[in-house]
Amino acid sequence: MSDLVDVGDENCRDQLRMDRTTFHKLCFMLQSVGGLKSSRRVTVAKKVAIFFLSISFKCSNQTVSKHFHAVLHCVLKMHSLFLVKPQPVNEDITDPRRQKF
């Protein structure tokens, strides 16, 4: 798994659909905010890589499933950071680009 993110951005983008910086930031957020923890044998980075690879390739291994659900649980717990509710537009806006049609 380490060769997915340690080799280079191109390989990381090809396999996980994001560059290494984004991957490591996401791992940090899932760990610090979402509460995702490394297990005795599997690091947070490996769990997140398993999550994205299983979305891409639809693996059906019990271990993969366990780590996939651990990451998914943390992502769902952090949904408010990823999804923002749109704010209504005020009626008295003077910018013509923002006015209603």
Number of helices: 6
Strand content: under 5%
The whole-number mean of residue pLDDT values reads 80
Order of helical and strand elements: HHHHHH
Helix content class: 55-70%
User: How widely separated are the two ends?
Assistant: 51 Å
The global form is: elongated
Count of distinct strands: 0
Low-confidence segments: none
- Coarse structural class: mainly alpha
Rg, nearest Å? 18 Å
The description of the largest β-sheet is: none
Describe the structure using short key phrases:
single chain, 101 residues, mainly alpha, 6 helices
Explain this structure.
With 101 residues, the protein is mainly α. The chain contains 6 helices and no strands. The protein has helices spanning 2-6, 9-16, 20-32, 44-57, 62-77, 79-82. α4 (44-57) packs across α5. The radius of gyration is 18 Å and the shape is elongated. The model has no long low-confidence stretch (mean pLDDT 80).
Short précis:
This protein has six helices and no strands. The chain has 101 residues and is mainly α.
How are the SSEs ordered, and which strands pair?
Layout: H1 2-6, H2 9-16, H3 20-32, H4 44-57, H5 62-77, H6 79-82
Helix pairs in contact: 4-5
